[in-house]
């Protein structure tokens, strides 16, 4: 048994925090976690600091604000490997995604190219989480609904602090399920409980660093991870078909390579399928598997983590689903660090009995060539963190000088995959920027530039079919509105 103090704090002045906020059905988090863990977790809820806003008071917060508030709240030493004080922070809303109701932000590692290059991010893992009351009020205006949602989200996020993950989409509702869109769960839904598999993990809290807060990075369950790939017997004889491709198949680790993913049906199949809209490594149910040259197989580590919102996509012969995923970077840095042959495949858990397994793609990671001038120029242009961010998020940097460096790069390296990928990313980033800029003239300039960049790559043999289609679609919608 371990005793854990959960300290409540607020970073926003004037929030409407209900009395005993982390309870549902008049049962508080202490009781829920004690029952679910077979009394292994003894949680104390400490609201004595809740009255004084942690300074500075902010309405919309970013991860860094939350990390800073958390260390003030818990006061845990930065070298701790297991902690007995965790924090739950109340705030207005989460700036990068204002509709998010709660967030487990403390992964214990940072995304290598994150703007906030500070130690808070890779300090102690799983020390706390946050709840966003303005966002909750927005979708739950009615008082009872508001209170229920706060209690549910608080227990859900605390579950993440104990390293619990979202359940498979086919499981019945539980605390770790995504919230409903139109209302909060009530006791009639049966969602106020932890699944047996989660209870089995919580029971090991005092024994296992993979559950104990601070003991391992978020989502790293070590030996407790279910052997989710090879274990289950699954019928794949019919249903949607998952396939992947990477182009080019040979590249240096810093080249902005994307994985193209396609969901379709077998040729001649006349039916259609509804598939959860989770084709993104930010969902646990979609996994990209990487086999390194030494034979080791691991999962691609997404820097993001999403809660499924219940949306589904329809897939049929007439309407296949495509998307591309930047895979050259992952949480922690570049994805491919060893030169040599790698194999990639993807899996999508599309229901309890339906695991889709893609084809396998062989790629070759080129060894570094520090004596080669072309290699050095490419490396120097592509490895700047702000450039990596632009290529990964396709969001333009505020500095025009930096975009200029990339433009020059794409001109100089004209007939290469990287040049085409950079130009495509610039085109999309400029298009996004054009929509956001208030100044009409500047917006039109950006739009013209974006159209030119996308036109230059349209039909290019160096871009994947998917990106060619996106470029085409963006160009036609642009000319329609201009
Ligand atoms: Zn969640």
Briefly, what is this?
With 482 residues, the protein is an alpha/beta fold.
Main beta sheet: strand number and arrangement?
A: 6 strands, mixed
Let me know the average pLDDT.
87
Number of domains: 3
Shape: globular
Radius of gyration: 24 Å
Low-confidence stretches: 227-236
Annotated CATH topology of the largest domain:
Collagenase (Catalytic Domain)
Per DSSP E runs of 2 or more residues, the count of β-strands stands at 22
List the helices and strands and how they pair.
Elements: E1 2-10, E2 23-24, E3 27-28, H1 29-36, E4 41-46, E5 60-61, H2 63-74, E6 85-91, E7 93-94, E8 102-103, E9 128-132, H3 133-139, H4 143-161, H5 196-202, E10 241-246, E11 250-251, E12 258-264, E13 273-276, E14 286-291, E15 297-299, E16 312-315, E17 321-326, E18 329-330, E19 333-334, E20 340-351, E21 354-357, E22 361-365, H6 373-382, H7 385-393, H8 400-412, H9 417-436, H10 440-457, H11 465-481
The protein binds zinc ion.
Zinc ion binds next to helix 4.
């Amino acid at each position: 048994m371990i005793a854990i103090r959960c300290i409540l704090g607020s970073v926003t002045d004037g929030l409407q925090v209900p009395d005993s906020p982390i309870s549902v059905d008049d049962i508080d988090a202490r009781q829920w976690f004690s029952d679910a863990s077979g009394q292994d977790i003894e949680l104390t809820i400490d609201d004595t600091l809740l009255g004084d806003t942690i300074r500075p008071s902010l309405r919309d917060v970013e991860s860094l604000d939350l990390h800073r508030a958390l260390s003030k709240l818990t006061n845990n030493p930065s070298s701790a490997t297991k902690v007995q004080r965790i924090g739950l922070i109340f705030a207005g809303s989460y700036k990068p995604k204002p509709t998010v109701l709660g967030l487990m932000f403390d992964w214990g590692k940072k995304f290598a190219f994150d703007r906030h290059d500070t130690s808070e991010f890779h300090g102690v893992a799983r020390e706390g989480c946050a709840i966003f009351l303005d966002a909750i009020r927005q979708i739950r205006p009615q008082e009872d609904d508001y209170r229920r949602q706060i209690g549910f989200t608080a227990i859900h996020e605390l579950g993440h602090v104990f390293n619990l993950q979202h359940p498979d989409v086919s499981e019945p509702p539980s605390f770790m399920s995504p919230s409903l869109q139109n209302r909060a769960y009530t006791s009639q839904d049966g969602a106020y409980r932890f699944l047996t598999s989660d209870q089995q993990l919580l029971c090991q809290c005092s024994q296992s660093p993979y559950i104990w807060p601070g003991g391992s990075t978020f989502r790293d369950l070590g030996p407790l991870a279910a052997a989710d790939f090879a274990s289950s017997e699954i019928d794949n004889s019919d249903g949607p078909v998952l396939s992947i491709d990477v182009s080019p198949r040979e590249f240096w680790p810093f080249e902005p390579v994307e994985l193209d993913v396609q969901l379709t049906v077998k040729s001649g199949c006349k039916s259609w399928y509804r598939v959860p809209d989770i084709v993104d490594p930010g969902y646990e149910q979609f996994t990209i598997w990487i086999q390194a040259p030494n034979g080791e197989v691991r999962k691609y580590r997404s820097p993001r983590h999403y809660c499924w919102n219940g949306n589904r996509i329809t897939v049929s012969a007439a309407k296949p689903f495509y998307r591309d995923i930047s895979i050259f970077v992952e949480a922690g840095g570049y994805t491919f660090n060893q030169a040599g042959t790698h194999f990639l495949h993807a899996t999508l858990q599309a229901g309890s009995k339906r695991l889709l397994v893609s084809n396998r793609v062989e790629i070759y990671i080129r060894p570094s060539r520090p004596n080669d001038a072309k290699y050095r120029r490419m490396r120097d242009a592509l490895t700047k963190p702000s450039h990596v961010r632009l290529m990964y998020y396709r969001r333009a940097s505020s500095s025009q000088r930096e975009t200029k460096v990339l433009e020059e790069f794409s001109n100089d390296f004209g007939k290469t995959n990287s040049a085409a990928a950079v130009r495509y990313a610039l085109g999309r980033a400029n298009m996004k920027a054009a929509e956001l800029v208030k100044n009409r003239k500047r917006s039109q300039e950006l739009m013209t530039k974006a159209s030119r960049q996308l036109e230059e790559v349209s039909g290019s043999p160096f871009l994947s079919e998917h990106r060619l289609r996106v470029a085409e679609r963006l160009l036609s919608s642009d000319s329609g509105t201009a």
